[in-house]
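User: Good morning. I'm curious how zinc ion would be positioned relative to this chain. Could you predict the structure with it bound?
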Amino acid sequence: MSSGAWGDRFRQRLNGHDPSQPQHVTVMVDAILANAREAGASDVHLVPQETGLAMQLRIDGVLQPIAELPKETSSNVIARLKVLSELLTYRTDVPQEGRVRSDSAAVSDGNGNGPSHNSVEMRVSTFPTLFGEKAVVRLFVGSGGFRFLGELGLPEDIETAVQRLLDRRNGLLLITGPAGSGKTTTAYAALREIVQASGSTRSISSLEDPIEAVVPGVAQSQINGAAGFDYATGLKSLMRQDPEVIFVGEIRDRNTAETAFQASLTGQLVLTTFHSSSAAGAISRLSDMGIEPYLLRSGVVGIVAQRLLRKLCSCAVDEADGDAGSAARLGLDVRCAKRPVGCERCGGAGYRGRMIVSELLQPDLSGMGRAILSRGDATEIEGLAVQAGMMTLLRRASLAVEAGQTSPAEVRRVLGWGIS
Ligand SMILES: [Zn+2]
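Assistant: Good morning! Here's the predicted structure, ligand included:
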């Protein structure tokens, strides 16, 4: 089957519908959203072209072309999405953002508690472009089967170590990775784990932007920058409420980082996400941000770095041995590898679903403290961590290649070529 399997299914949904009927736009938007859900997509992109409206779905983290909608319906499709998300339909010249409220829809909080007033099903954003408004629909697929640490597919040693860290009464646990690496899912799983393990006896608060899922047992707060309620000021106020565990959605600036470190040293366990390419890289980035080495040294109890790799579909085949196969391994240190093919089940992509690869750095392991205090670079810190037993992201990914779970090309796509 061609790579247009989801496109074929999308066209089938529109079969028998008369484009001249007034309700056609509604039918088309319903078909777009149903197609996205069926494909398990996280986002729908609708991009105006000179010839029509290009529809793309992000499936397993990769944007795939689905269809080109006729030019004459383009602006009506966008307008319909704007109505659904309560945006101003008459403003097409400024970017807008809105949510499709799910009060009536069957959206639960992921905990079997049924529809919640705060739950959000989709977020729609529009942006004016040369040929009309571009729209991106973000679908919140919910926590699904990833509610607890044990369901994320973390390596057993990392899962056990993280469980132990979550029992701590102080310290900072960082979950790092680039955008789209599943950091938030891991953070939410960790929060649910703390709630469950403590039997709701620990006071748990969060500051988030946005709140992506409701976690019963956590006092969740939405940041509101326009009202002066940003991460740093929110965190300072929250400290007066004597929380025991704080989840800070993301550390983006020095002020937030410093406040989070202070909290971690004064009897709070702080859980947060941070943008960095590796666990060791997070230390040097925080150092570059101006965080004092002694804060890093005493505050950080663990750094999880993670990525999501697409899993090969069962249609994958073995790479050849010998020289041809060796080139196909793309320089990875692996004995064998499989490559994607594409079939009906995977919509022609050759991959189905994703898996997590991760590394865990615990700075209190021997030798690292001095390297952090002397502002050692990421390479030096990673070297020490590996000596102390850390398995790097690349090594974990290479093992997944040897196990036939993913391909060398996917590892290079996600981890890049810079990591050797
Ligand atoms: Zn397949």
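Residues 210 and 273 are 13 Å apart (CA to CA). The chain has 14 helices and 15 strands.
Let me know if you'd like a different ligand tried.
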